[in-house]
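Slide 14.
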Amino acid sequence: MKENANKYVQVIVDIPSLHMRTFSYLIPDEIKEKIQIGLPVLVPFGSQGVVNAYIVGFSDYLPEGIKAKSVYEILDNVPVFDLEYLQFLEWVSNYYCCDLPTVISTAIPVNFFSKAKRVAILQDIQFEQSKLNKSQQTLYEILVNNPEITVSSLQKKAKLPSSKFYETLRKLVALDIIKIDNVIDIKNQKPKIENWIELLEKNSSNKRHFEILAILDSLNGKSKLSDFLKISKTTYPTVKKLQEAGNIKIIEQEIYRNPLEIFEIDETEDFLELSFEQNEALERISKAIEKCDSDPLLLYGVTGSGKTEVYFHAARKALDAGKNVIFLAPEIPLASQLAYRISKRFGTDKVGIWHSNLSEGERFDIWQRIRNNEIRIIIGARSAIFAPIKNIGLIVIDEEHESSYKQTSPTPRYNAKDLAKERAKRSGAAFVLGSATPDIATYYQTLNSNRVMLLPERFGAKDLAKVAIIDMKQEYGRGNKGVFSRALRQAIERNIKEKKQSILLINRRGFSTYTFCDSCGYTAECKKCSIPLILHKTNNKLRCHYCSFEQNIFTVCPKCSSNAVRYYGMGTQKVEEEFKKEFPEAKVARLDSDTMAKKNAHIDVIKEFSNGKIDVLIGTQMIAKGLDIPNVTLVGVLMSDSLFNMPDFRSSERGFQLLTQVAGRAGRGDFKGTVYFQTYTPDFFALQTAKEQDYLSFYYSEIQSRYEYSYPPYSQIIRLILSSKNEIRASKFSDELAYKLSLFTDSRGIQEKLEVLGPAPCVISKIKNEYRFQIIIKNRLGENGHFLATSFIRQFNVPEDIKFLIDVDPSDML
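Slide 15: predicted structure.
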C-alpha cells in the first residue's frame, strides 16, 4: 500500500453526544503505510482515557496553538467503511438529527475489533536487545517470559504511560519483533473452523489402515474429520498415525454459517413467463438500471398480480449487467419468505439474508462475505439497507406501505425507505417500490412524476376474493356472543371438510386486552406506564407491552375487594383457545411476536402451513402479507374496527391497507377465495373501500383530507418527545422549548410554513415511570425547513434529568 503523505488523521470518537465533530491526531511513521479512511483505531481522549475511533479524513495542518497527540494503534487492518459509505452515514446522521457514532454502531453491528482481546505475540526470540532503547527492552523482556500476552496486561506489567507504551509497541511491530492479533472471545463471533482429512497415499501395508484409506478414497479423497471417524469406525489416534505415515493430511477449513441452509434448496427453478403488463414494468426498470436512473418507480398492482416475479426478472437484469441487488421486506417472516423464493431462482451461494434474528456467527460470516464481495443479492428487514454491499444496480422495497420500515427505537429513528432512496441516488441504482396498497405519500409523488407502473389484474387472470362485511351488532342481537360470526364459522367448517386452508387475523397479541372490575370500574394498568395490562394465558400473567412489567392475574378487585373482575377484549391467544374449542379436529397454529421468540420458529410455521400440514393460521398483521399459498381460500378478520381506532392521522390508511392485504391472501390458486370482515361499524368508508379493494377511491378521499389539514405529503412532520420522572420538570421544559421554537420561527416570518404545535401530553402519557410530552413541527418548507428546524434543535441544551427524543417523519403519534 502506498504511504499516506498527510501528517494528521481526522477521526470521530466512539462517544455519543459529540455529533459530527472530528478530532485530529498525528500519524506515527510506523503505520503511515496502513492508514486509510474507515479504519478503526485506538486514540487517547482526555479524561475518557483510551477510546475507539474511526478515521474519516486527513489533513496537513492544525489550527494554531493546538498540539496533536498520536494515534495509538490500528484495531483492524480492513476498513469498516469507505468514503462513499461514510458520506451516506453522515447524511443519515444529519437527516435524523443524531450522532454519527450512533449511526455507525447501528450500521455496522459486527464490531468484532472492539470486542476482541488484543494479544501481543513474540516473533523474534533471538533479537539483539542492545539495538533496543530502554522502553523497548522493557516490553521485550516481559514478552520473553510471556510470549503471548494481552496488550492490556503487557501495559500493566510495563508500567509505562499510554503514549510511551503504544509508541514502543508500534516500533516493535515495525521491526517484526512482535505481532498484534485480535483474538475474538465472544462466542461464535469468529470464523467457524472444522478439521477435514485429505487422502495423499491410499496404499498401506497395515491391513486396517488400508481399509480406512479405501473408505476415504470412496469419499472422493476428502471428508470432514468428525464424519469420517463415524463412517470408518475408527479413532482420532489412528488418523494421526496415518498422518504421520504420510497417507493423509489434516487440514483446517473455514465453514460458512449460511442461514439459508434451513431451506434445503437442492436445485433452482426456472423464471416464469411474464404478462404484457409485467413486461412493460420490467422494461422501465431495466432502462433505469441501464441509465443509472435512481428516481423512485412505483410498481402498483393488485394482490396476486405478480409483482415479485417482476422483481426477480429485474434482479437478473442487474446481475447480468455486473451489478448487485438489495431486497427489503418489512418484517423478518416476510424477509425469510422472500429469501427462500429468491434462493430458489438464484441459488444460495451468492444470496445473503440480514436481520436481527441471525446468530452472532451467522452475522459475522455474512458480513465478511459482503465485505469480500462474495454476495450479490442481500435480502432483509430494514437494517439490511446498511449492508456494505457495493456496486448496487437495483434496490427493491417490497410492501413499501408498511410502517415496519421505520425504526421507532432506539436512535437513529430512521425509515429504511428514505435511506434506500438516498443510497440509490448516491450509487445510481434503480429504485423500485412495490405494493397493492401504496403509501399515500408514495403514490402522490410517483403519480405526479409519471413513475407509476400498473399491474391491474391477478397473475393468470384469476379473480380477486369475494369480500363480505359481517355486522357483529346483528350477530350479538341474535344471541351469538362468540368470537366467530355464523357465516365465518360455517365457512371454516366447510374449508376444513374440503381440505382447504384458512387465515384468521386479529391484530392484537395476548389473551384479553384489559382487566375491568364491573363493580367499581377499576382497570388494571401498568405501574410504570399509562396503559392497560394485557392478559397472557400461556403463563397466566398480566403484561405491559411497553416495559415488560408483569404481575399475577387476580379475581378479587384490589380496589373494592369484590369478585366482579372480568377480562375483556381478545387477542391471538384467546382466538386460538376459542378456535380449538369449536374446531377440535382442525390443525391450528398461531403466528405473532410471542411465538417468534425461538429462532426460526416463524420459518417452521410458514413451511408447515405452505405444505398443507396446518389447516388454520391465526396471527397478527405479520400473516397479512407475503403469503402466497394456493390452497388458502378463506380469510377472516376479527375486530376489524380495532384497525381504525388509533389516534393518528394515518389510522384509516393503515386499516385499509391491512384489510386489503389480508384479503389478498385468499383465492390465489385454482379455487375462488372468500373473505369476511367482522365489524361493529359496517358503513365506515375505509372498510367499504377495502371490501371492494378499491385503492384509488380511498386514495382520492384520503389525499383531500391530508391537504385540508396539511399532513404528509403536503408537509413533513418532526416530533419532539420530552420525558422525565418528574412530571412538572418535563412539562416546564416542554413549554420552554416550544416557546423558543415559536420565537425562532416568528423572527424569520416562517411561522405558517414551519408550524409549531404543542406542547401536549403524549397519547401514552407515561412509559417506564417517565412522563411524556410532545411538540409537533409541521414543515412546509422542504429541505430548507428541515435544516432550519434540526439545526435549531441540535443547539438546544437539554438538562440531565430530561430525555429528549427527535423523531423525523414519525410512524405514529403515540
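Speaker note: The mean pLDDT is 89.
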